[in-house]
Amino acid sequence: MLKAREVVYQLSTYHPPLGNRTGLRLDFNENTVGCSPRVLEKLRSLDGEQLARYPEREPLEQLVASRLEVDARELLLTNGTDEAIHLVCETYLEPGDEVLIVVPTFAMFKIYAEATGAKVISIPTKEDFCFPTAEVMRRLTPRTRLVAVANPNNPTGTLVPQEQLLDITKAAPQAAVLIDEAYFEFCQQTLIPGWRKLPNLFVSRTFSKAYGLAGLRIGVLMGDAEQMNLVRRVSSPYSVNEVALACLPDALADTTYVSEYAAEVRRGRDQLQQQLRVLDIRHWPSQANFVLMHFGALQSAFIAAMRERGILVRDRSSDEGCKGCVRITLGSDAHNQRLFSALRPVLEQIGMTEKVSR
Q1: Does residue 354 lie within any of the structural domains?
Q2: Residues 213, 65 share a domain
Q3: Does the pLDDT at position 94 exceed 50?
């Protein structure tokens, strides 16, 4: 009888609740209005001959590298951030190696690391989801081969100061340190190109969030040129599809579209947090395109009542330290206003008074 590797039977599974997502999608941190019109125009122009060719990503890597002001040898286009994480794990992890992650965080860090047979050590955040830098430093050992950090973090929206991340990277030269900057456009803090002083540092980005290209699956992994050459050996040359590559130049060229959308998100984020303060609803200051808030025992009722109004929000109760929590994505001004208009009536409907049960 055919059997998988033993570690596969022990893996956690990630099942995003994608079914029946009709309404205003404030549940998956997606761009709520979609990609640039220039990208749609490009899609309409694609022909059968172009789709019949194998994709060639190197010319686009030159373009992206130029935009990010790095060398093309320091960069690899990937099939979303997921592939970037997967490639780092496959390049550097052996069975029995140790991986440090701070939880709650993006689920795929743990899944891809464990798939290699590595041991994942989950370190809880401090109070109010503050990053436990001292504890991470304490848990570093010669067996530590990967430290993975989402910055800003998902689902909390918290941001780790750059100096702390650099201190961790310096303290573990034998480990790959991967900083996932998927929400960079909403906070503008980056470690690019920190790997020139610390060759064990990697930074990943995605075009799913601010650029609205989640369905095309395209991201980027960056790091020291010598290390990236090793990562490239593990990567398929065809993992990024031709449609994504064809559309990327137009997405990058429409800088006004991305900057204006990111500004709307940041504005909506500030407005939502102000409303939550007025309503005395516990939440955590966010630097991403979402806000995590605590509804306690009323969490399920809140999610259901919002869905009745055609607004989807995300249950995060199963995440470490997030029991009773809901995450809400911000989007365009129009979509944010729709959210704000629904918020108080929903709270009244579910019986929430001055303060949520904690």
Answers
A1: no
A2: yes
A3: yes
